[in-house]
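Lecture notes, part 5. Sequence design as translation. It can be helpful to think of inverse folding as translation between two languages: the language of shapes and the language of residues. The source text, in structure tokens, appears below.
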């Protein structure tokens, strides 16, 4: 089987050994405000905070060849032109390697005895992409090297940049000073920010106008300036501004030279924008450039970045005896959780950065995998999310990261949204014990005049479901629940109409078993939060609401072998054995069993057996089966996809961990792990078939009915990251933050017999040694802390930070 790379566990890197991966395999640089997506060939783009509003460099999705645009370094070695990342010139390299690490990417290319190595990172605390490029002459003769850098600026607003050419072909402006190129389009009017692209050495020449650099009708693969070895010293005026430096130097045999390139984002106060008419104030840029003038400065920042990650990854660590599990839990899954926390569903190689911003449900769920890393940031995020809720408890489905305002075009009406906020806040309080978040004053729809406590937001969330029930006493689905494509009130027959926002028919009838599962699942936590807040009466009312919902599910939601998915606008069953297509869905089986519904009635066990029987495949559990083969007006987008893709019968990885967690509820260690393994990137054998990055989760793997069964799409930005980390760390390995302490409650596969874990929790450190003799079931779990056995596996939270030795036996 063709392989494209491997894990280097010691370095915490994924090593790509050939550039022509099935699709670009990318990395995310930056973890605060400045971000760069960088592919294994140097493609990608940068933005500040918001990929739509403040896009720094341009990128072309859907282009041929793919992955067009990036930070490129062209080398002209005595007439032979190449690029170390292979793209865009695609000259044959003698050696190539790309290492994606935590917040940095290293690309090495070698040709004719000249080796080029670029290391790019967004340093912690700096709004810049900084790249150290080292060229080494490995040949026996001196080399005259001519090096050209290249970035293409985006005119800030990525949507306008890619559509409104009648205007934006005339707005581009730059300034050049020494080795620094300043991109200042629209700075003359309402923007007080600009970008800078500079190198820490004198330049031979430069270009800032794309056509001058490339030459008419030429592409990134054959820039005339590079092939003719002569920068044009062009000054952009309208059209397409770029940044390109030319450096010429001689390398003796064995000699190497490094340069530092910096692409930065700078802002000025309104009254300090200019130093002379139309001459920008470059002070912030100079400060940035001064911070990365030398290799020593670069190396120090690189080390600081590694230490930052050392700190984060020391919070949860496992040595299980299975290296594939360890590398996901310890490194890559947590890393992806950071990325989904930062990006929500905004910018990836599948999300254009223009469409969706931060999702209400998406970001709430992303927090489940991020909470332990930086709880203070999770807290801020929860407040931002809650501020996009409406007074009636419903919520904007998405908001824009820069403005934090709800996205008006998409609006509201996804009836699962409100409940996710309770999941997020409960997870925060369990991790930190910080109940002050409940008293935090948070506006509705960003209107400060109607602010209420966070707890009041949660109350409105909870009651939104209670107040919106349908004929069977089950929650009304609205536009959709978690499954965005099950649009039961949409009835769209107009091409191009948005399935997400169209409600041609508000039935007031269509109901969701999934939301029922969420409601039951979150009820106990909600009641506990009420009590913490001093709302005894509200807390006391919860069990009755919970029970009513459970009863409605048991009475109207059981199909005989599994749980139904929904009732449609006519009151017909969805996800029933009676249906011709879409007979069984994964979501209610996962969520209802996780919530404990039907456990004692035996329904839970049956439901999970049915999942295995009907939905399980080599590559994971399909979302439903059989997929819809024709368009169903009454079901919406779900039936718009060809069978086996996306929500129509694909393996929608996000919900596989729900089955893992559900299996753990029933104590099935082997079965839980079996589901975990099937979608887990580190267990992928056929990298070519899988297509996307084998170090992160993708949203979807084509299901058994698809022509390309096993092929993944939509890598990186998926709730799969958070949920699988949650399922592995809490469901399988069983380290669960609870309101009162840390609960130890593993459910292990038989083959994991002896494990060591470290968990930092509320200031204390727990060193945990687990011995598993339970043979693939959960068995009886016994826990000792510092030599003393504790009942129930709950280690009470410390009043003062301490270190504890914990032993766990499963028999
Ligand atoms: C996709 C969903 C997505 C939705 C939101 C649909 O086309 O299939 O996965 O959540 O769009 O924009
Ligand atoms: C992707 C969306 O981001 C998420 O919100 C949704 O739950 C899933 N698709 C399933 O439709």
């Amino acid at each position: 089987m063709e392989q494209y790379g491997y894990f280097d566990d010691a370095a915490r890197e994924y090593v790509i050994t050939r550039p022509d991966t099935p699709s670009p395999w990318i990395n995310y640089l930056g973890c605060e405000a400045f971000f760069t997506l960088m592919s294994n060939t140097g493609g990608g783009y940068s933005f500040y905070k918001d990929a739509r509003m403040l896009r720094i460099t341009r990128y072309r999705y859907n282009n041929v060849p793919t992955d067009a645009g990036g930070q490129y370094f062209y080398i002209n070695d005595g007439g032979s032109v190449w690029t170390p990342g292979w793209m865009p010139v695609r000259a044959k390299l003698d050696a190539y390697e790309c290492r994606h690490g935590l917040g940095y990417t290293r690309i090495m290319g070698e040709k004719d005895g000249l080796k080029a190595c670029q290391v790019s990172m967004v340093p912690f605390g700096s709004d810049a992409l900084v790249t150290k490029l080292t060229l080494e002459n490995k040949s026996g003769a001196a080399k005259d090297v001519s090096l050209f850098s290249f970035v293409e600026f985006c005119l800030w607003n990525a949507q306008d940049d890619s559509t409104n050419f009648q205007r934006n072909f005339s707005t581009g402006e730059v300034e050049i000073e020494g080795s620094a190129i300043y991109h200042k389009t629209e700075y003359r009017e309402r923007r007080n920010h600009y970008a800078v692209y500079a190198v820490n050495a004198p330049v031979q020449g430069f270009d800032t106008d794309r056509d001058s650099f490339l030459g008419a009708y030429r592409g990134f693969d054959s820039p005339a300036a590079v092939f003719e070895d002569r920068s044009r010293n062009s000054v952009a005026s309208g059209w397409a501004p770029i940044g390109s430096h030319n450096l010429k130097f001689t390398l003796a045999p064995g000699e190497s030279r490094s340069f530092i390139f910096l692409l930065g984002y700078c802002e000025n106060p309104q009254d300090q924008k200019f130093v002379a008419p139309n001459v920008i104030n470059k002070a912030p840029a100079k400060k940035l450039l001064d911070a990365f003038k030398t290799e020593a400065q670069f190396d120090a920042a690189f080390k600081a970045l590694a230490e930052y990650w050392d700190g984060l990854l020391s919070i949860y660590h496992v040595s299980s005896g299975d290296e594939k599990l360890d590398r996901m839990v310890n490194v890559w899954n947590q890393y992806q959780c950071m990325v989904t926390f930062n990006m929500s569903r905004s910018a990836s190689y599948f999300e254009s950065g223009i469409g969706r911003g931060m999702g209400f449900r998406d970001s709430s769920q992303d927090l489940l995998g991020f909470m332990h890393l930086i709880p203070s940031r999770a807290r801020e995020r929860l407040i931002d999310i809650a501020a996009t809720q409406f007074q009636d408890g419903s919520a904007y489905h998405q908001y824009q990261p820069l403005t934090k305002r709800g996205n008006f075009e998409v609006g509201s009406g996804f009836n699962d949204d409100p409940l996710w906020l309770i999941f997020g806040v409960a997870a925060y309080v369990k991790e930190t014990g910080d109940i002050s978040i409940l008293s935090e004053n948070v506006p509705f729809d960003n209107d400060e005049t109607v602010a209420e406590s966070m707890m009041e937001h949660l109350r409105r969330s909870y009651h939104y479901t209670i107040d919106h029930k349908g004929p069977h006493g089950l929650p009304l689905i609205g536009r959709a629940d978690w499954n965005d494509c099950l649009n039961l009130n949409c009835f769209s027959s107009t091409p191009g109409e948005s399935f997400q926002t169209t409600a041609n028919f508000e039935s007031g009838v269509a109901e969701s078993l999934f939301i029922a599962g969420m409601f039951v699942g979150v009820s106990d936590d909600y009641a506990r939060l009420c009590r913490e807040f001093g709302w005894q009466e509200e807390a006391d009312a919860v069990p009755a609401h919970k029970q009513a919902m459970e009863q409605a599910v048991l009475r109207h939601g059981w199909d005989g072998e599994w749980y139904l998915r929904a009732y449609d606008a006519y009151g017909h069953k969805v996800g029933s054995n009676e249906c011709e297509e879409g007979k069984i869905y994964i979501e209610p089986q996962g969520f209802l069993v996780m919530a404990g519904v039907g456990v004692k009635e035996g329904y839970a066990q049956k439901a999970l057996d049915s999942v295995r029987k009907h939905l399980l495949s080599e590559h994971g559990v399909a979302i439903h089966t059989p997929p819809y083969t024709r368009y169903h007006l009454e079901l919406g987008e779900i039936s718009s996809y060809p069978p086996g893709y996306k929500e129509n019968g694909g393996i929608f990885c996000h919900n596989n961990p729900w089955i893992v967690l559900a299996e753990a509820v029933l104590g099935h260690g082997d079965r839980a792990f079996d589901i975990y393994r099937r979608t887990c990137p580190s267990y992928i054998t056929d990298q070519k078939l899988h297509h996307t990055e084998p170090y992160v989760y993708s949203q979807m793997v084509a299901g058994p009915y698809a022509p390309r069964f096993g092929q993944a799409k939509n890598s990186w930005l998926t709730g799969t990251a958070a949920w699988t980390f949650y399922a592995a760390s809490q469901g399988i390995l069983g380290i669960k933050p609870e309101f009162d302490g840390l609960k130890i409650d593993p459910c292990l596969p038989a083959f994991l017999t002896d494990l060591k874990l470290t968990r930092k929790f509320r200031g204390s450190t727990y060193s945990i040694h687990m011995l598993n003799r339970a043979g693939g079931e959960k068995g009886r779990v016994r826990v000792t802390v510092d030599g003393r056995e504790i009942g129930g596996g709950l280690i009470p939270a410390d009043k003062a930070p301490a270190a504890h030795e914990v032993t766990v036996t499963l028999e």
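The translated text above is only one of many valid answers, since several sequences can fold into similar shapes. Residues 345, 359, 361-362, 482-485, 647 surround 1-deoxynojirimycin (ligand 2) (CB under 6 Å).
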